[in-house]
Amino acid sequence: MSASPSIAIAGGGIIGVSTAWRLAQRGFRVAVFDQGNMGGEASWAGAGMLALGGEIDEPSELARLAVESRRLYPAFIRELVETSGLAIDFQELGAIDLAYSAAELAALESRAAGQATMGIDSKPVLPAQVASFWPRVRTEGLLGARFYPGDGLVNPREVVVALCAVCRKLGVRFLQNCAVESVSDGGADVQITSADGVATFRAAVVAAGAWSGAIVVNPVPVPASFPVKGHLLGYQQPSQTCNTIIRHGHTYLMQRTNGFLIAGASVEHAGFDRHIDSQIAAQLAMAAGFVMPHLLETTPTETWVGFRPASEKLRLGRWQSSNVYLAYGHYRNGILLAPVTAERLAEEISADLGIG
Questions:
Q1: Phi–psi pair at 184, nearest 5 degrees
Q2: 276 plus 128 within the same structural domain
Q3: Residue 307: strand, helix, or coil
Q4: What are the pLDDT digits (tens) for 225-242?
Q5: Is residue 134's pLDDT more than 70?
Q6: What residue numbers bound the domain in which 288 lies?
Q7: What Å distances lie between residue 15 and 110, 111, 206, 297, 316, CA to CA?
């Protein structure tokens, strides 16, 4: 990687590899380091909801980025499919939020009113309409619902595989099982210390998700990051069992085109504990079965956990006027924010280094 300009990316999840793609398209030489396999952590575990309706409650910089990234997604996937030649399960199918009490319905309506000011559209759905269009959903006690036509889903595992394929075509170098230990900014360049040794790059991007804050960055340490553990369940079901995303409170259900129905997710501050808790899994199954009663008689075919990458806030952009750039703290929205994160970083790095 002696030629300039060269960029090192610490973290091979959907954020890191998306950014590598956009940088390589601009002519940068890129190396992506990961402590395990590319896309093997949060990107592998994530359900893949592109759900402004379920995630954005009030105006903020994160909300603006999320709306922009959702707008970018169709073209992002189309370009990725055309360039890689690989299929990606991407569904723009909408989502429904259910209310089984007056308080839940009032909260849905209040949230929807605020979301409308940000360009997130929804419309009310009557219980009789839910019974017609979502026949598997519990209607006993249902007072109302809201439908979000702009919500969708994508299979993040397939996205990462396609990203790696197009990056390889552009000469991106992948160093798997090779965690970045430290990044030292030298003014004109940065030194990366990893299991592969020490290498010099023009700039570096820290995009290691929940592990980002553990990377030693000199001379100014980067902000802390931490994992938020989540359990998820998977059920093999007939196609169209769940014909949109379905939400009730903190519970969501969504189905891939291959019939795999995902129910999630718990929120646990338990560090990097990979243990599957049978009690938490049972609670998730009960919550999923409340929304879709037939699931109470169905045994999940898979249970897994993932680590959402959290920080005090989203970290995106140049760090302290150095040659180090941050791309972490996406928390529940890493899949959704991948296109806009990659675009923003590629633009900023190109401008700072006088490229393009």
A1: -120, 120
A2: yes
A3: strand
A4: 999 999 999 999 999 999
A5: yes
A6: 91-151+226-310
A7: 32, 29, 10, 38, 11
